[in-house]
Design a protein that fits this description.
The protein is α/β, with parallel strands linked by helices and about 290 residues long. Among the domains are: about 80 residues, Winged helix-like DNA-binding domain superfamily/Winged helix DNA-binding domain (Arc Repressor Mutant, subunit A, Orthogonal Bundle); about 90 residues, 3-Layer(aba) Sandwich (D-Maltodextrin-Binding Protein, domain 2), CATH 3.40.190. It is built from 11 helices and 11 strands. Strands 3, 4, 5, 6, 9, 10 and 11 form a 7-stranded mixed sheet that branches. It has a two-stranded antiparallel sheet with strand order 1-2. Strands 7-8 form a two-stranded parallel sheet. It is elongated.
Length: about 290
């Protein structure tokens, strides 16, 4: 089955923008043109490809064509670069919040003048799902086993330490950190998918500990909440202030990270990979989980 490139571009743009209007703006056409292209593609395949929700999202069949569309965009960008033209094709990349807040942007900065990026923030345990679905061309992930059609490179480990503000530590841990104190002291969680804090809590206070929990789904604000005394939490070493009190000195938690990327040959993707691997190995610790 052959596919119309303009129809594939419409599908990709709609998923990236989250709406048909956004896709129209990105491709410099009318929303009606986007709608017509998508209907034609669905007629061609005999399948519903997009759920018209807010934002729009691809169906299982749509994800298969989205992967094809993104691969086509990558090839077009490389061909344009070889001809000395600027294709303006951003590279969609999935990155976990803590990496995005610490080492990823410095790693990408040297490429920013020549390459555009669409960075998707997602939990490191779930970024590989975006690769499988064709929504990104590369991802920082905790999965070492390559996704089908991808190559995997170890990056090192993000090291975390359980810390609290000095005043908070004096109030809640006057006699040291023990199971009873941890069971009552407020703690912070990034979101409902954040396992780090709960793993530390279970390890030190048992599975039944249920302290008050503040949820702060932003890396910078999460660290700020720790400094302001909202609760204790695990922070990346790259974000630690010297004044914070470590709750379990000498026992950090290491989360091993990997870089997964499409195997397709691409100059832009190769340059992106070199930058990410170099940046990670300069900022992270040797792989391993504490």
């Amino acid at each position: 089955m052959r596919f119309d490139p303009d129809q594939l571009r419409a599908l990709s743009a709609a998923v990236t923008a989250g709406s048909l209007d956004g896709a129209a703006r990105a491709l410099h056409v009318t929303p009606s043109a986007i709608s017509q292209r998508l209907r034609a593609l669905e007629t061609r395949t005999g399948r519903v490809l997009l759920v018209r929700s807010k934002p729009v999202r691809p169906t299982t069949s749509g994800k298969a064509l989205l992967l094809l569309a993104r691969q086509l965009e990558l090839l077009e960008a490389d061909a344009a670069a070889a001809l000395g033209e600027d294709a303006h094709r951003p590279l969609p990349v999935a990155v976990n919040a803590d990496s995005l807040a610490t080492w990823v942007l410095p790693a990408l900065a040297p490429l920013a003048a020549t390459t555009a990026f669409h960075l998707r923030r997602e939990d490191e345990g779930r970024t590989s799902e975006l690769l499988r679905e064709g929504e990104v061309v590369a991802a920082v992930t905790t999965e070492a086993t390559p996704v089908a059609g991808c190559a995997s490179t170890p990056l090192g480990a993000m090291r975390y330490r359980a810390v609290a503000a000095p005043a908070f530590a004096r109030r809640w841990f006057p006699d040291g950190v023990d199971a009873d104190a941890l069971g009552h002291a407020p703690m912070l969680a990034f979101d409902r998918d954040d396992p780090l804090q709960h793993e530390f809590l279970t390890r030190h206070a048992g599975p039944d500990a249920r302290p008050p929990t503040h949820m702060v789904p932003s890396s910078a604000d999460f660290a700020a909440a720790v400094r302001l005394g909202f609760g204790w939490a695990l922070l990346p070493e790259l974000q630690l202030d010297p004044g914070l009190v470590e709750l379990d000195p000498g026992a950090p938690t290491d989360v091993a990270l990997h870089w997964q990327r499409w195997r397709r040959q691409s100059g832009a993707l190769e340059a992106l990979t070199r930058a990410i691997v170099a940046g990670a190995r300069a900022a992270l610790v040797p792989s391993g989980r504490g």
